[in-house]
Amino acid sequence: MSSTLLEVTRASHEEVERLERLVVKDLQTEPATNKDRLHQSHRVRNMIEQIIDTTHKLVDIYEDKDGARKDEIAALGGQTATGTNVFSAFYDRLKEIREYHRRHPAARVVIDASDDYEQLLIEEPQIEFSGEEGSGRYLDLHELFNEYYNSKFGARIEYTAYLDVFSQPQKIPRKAKSTRPYREYLQKLLEYLIYFFERTEPLQDLDRIFSKVTSEFEEEWTIGKVEGWENNSQENGSAPQNHTVIDLNSYSTVEELTIEGPDKLKEALGALGLKTGGTIQQRAERFFLTKHTPLEKLDRKHFAKGSRKPEQNGVMPAPQVGDDVKEIALMEAKIRKLCDLLDETIVRTKENVEKKQALTYEEMEAEREEDDVQAESESDEEDQQIYNPLKLPMGWDGKPIPYWLYKLHGLGQEFKCEICGNHSYWGRRAYERHFKEWRHQHGMRCLGIPNTKNFNEITSIEEAKQLWERIQEKQGLNKWRPDLEEEYEDQEGNIYNKKTYTDLQRQGLI
Questions:
Q1: Fewer Cβ in 10 A, N or C end of the chain?
Q2: From CA 413, how far away is CA 408, in angstroms rounded?
Q3: Exposed/middle/buried for 507, CB within 10 Å: 0-12, 13-18, 19+?
Q4: Measured CA distances, 243 to 122, 231, 238, 265, 321 (Å)
Q5: Does residue 181 contact residue 153 with C-beta atoms inside 8 Å?
Q6: Residue 234 gets which letter from DSSP?
Q7: Structure confidence by residue, pLDDT tens digits, 239-298
Q8: Phi and psi (nearest 5°) for 494?
Q9: What pTM was estimated for this model as a whole?
């Protein structure tokens, strides 16, 4: 028995409602790990897309462009070509239902299909990440870094420094941005950031974000306040007015034009779509042709390969150059916005790179195995025994600290202090700090020795006693006598010891 249009409508509404409840139920569960969070976000995104598709189908049904829904409603009311007959329509429909069940006696009505929908909550979508991306925790910009490092617009910097500057394309000199390599590099960078953002933040509406970025960019571009492109646009969308434009009205001969220099002439020729090669004399001659001859009348041989010759209506190629520049500036604005949204990920990436630089291959392998073990155990119950094969100390979160941190602080080195009752201290930092802690101070008081800086690094009781005896002997021989050695000065600048000064003061002589 084929479903009627009204039944399809009812089933579609039911599906939308079920999916909405599943979305709420899934979001009420707090994910335990980053991997679980990604799976949850992608599950919710998939259900939202199903809701959108089903809603579009419902909109088409309600618009009823072919009139099928209207005819079906009329048929239910008994309206036929011969007139209105409710009973005839009812019995025809009853006959159709009985005939269907007679042909399909095993058919049954599905009362509750919630089990099928509940399976969506345990689905684990497949999300592809490279080994450097760490399941979406870090960025993998090595390929783009190599392109930046070997380009003319880039700089010879390390990868960690690149992670600080790649999000600031506005700081690249404007002269270097007009090249094709920079445009291709910018496109690749934007594509990667979009791809990474869609995988790690599937619930974000990237189209809406870019729509807002574009609208703000258009306003700033109109008034010439785009960051990195200030005063580089006009309201009519013409070519950018920059320092490379040469006013030919100021020059009467080619020789005078050569004063501008080869670089400035090259940029001016490139802005017009003309060839930029040759000596400074040839460049000046080629550019000087445009003073009295319109571009559309120049010989084709003067134009660079791949550039379009101006049309006969006098349209200059400069607006096309302006459109290219505007497109580059817009890509930069989108990259800056994505970097703001991925700020925490960029910081984590830099920290991860710096951490790896301090590790050996064996340590990285040990840490990778530890991360795998922790990733598997994070989703288990809290009271489950933590797997710690390397016997690492526990951190503030009740889990073993990273292996690189264990090696950095030398926590595998044991120091014992006899004064503290043979208590063990792990790591140089804890050992140095314990001399000021209560346990060591209590031990020194029990020995009758003051806990001063002289006794730092002394952990043996016998050594502490011997040092204290030597200090006492030295103080006995060189004991300071304040009545004889403490100095006083009168109003005239005379110096006396304490005893003499006191006697003279009593006599009223000073």
A1: N
A2: 11
A3: exposed
A4: 61, 11, 15, 12, 15
A5: yes
A6: -
A7: 444 444 576 766 778 787 777 778 788 878 877 778 788 888 888 888 888 877 777 777
A8: -75, 140
A9: 0.51
